[in-house]
Amino acid sequence: MSHVIFFINQIQILNMKKIILRFKNQLLLIAVITCSISFTACNSTKEKTPESPPQTTVPDSTGSNTQVATYQCPMDCEKGKTYNAPGQCPVCGMDLEQKQ
Description:
By secondary structure, this protein is an alpha+beta fold. The chain has one helix spanning 2-44; strands at residues 57-59, 65-67, 70-72, 97-99.
C-alpha cells in the first residue's frame, strides 16, 4: 500500500512541475512582448528641437550691418521664441538672457 501512495505522490509532483514550467513559459512570453512593444513605442516619437530663427541685421549710421541682439527665456518656456529687447518671460517671469 505504501508503494501506491508513493507512486501517486510522484505523479502529483510531476504534474505540479509541468504546471510551473508552463506558467514560466507564458510569463516569459508576456515579458518579451511587453518589452518589445515598449522599446518600439519609445523609438517612434522623438521630439525635434526647434530651429533657431535667422539673425536679422540692421544697418547702422556708418552703413555697415550690425546684428540685433536676441533674448530668450533661460527655461525655454516658449520653445525657442526670441525677443529683440531684454525683459521678463511672460510665462515664468524670469529675466530674458541674451542669446549668442
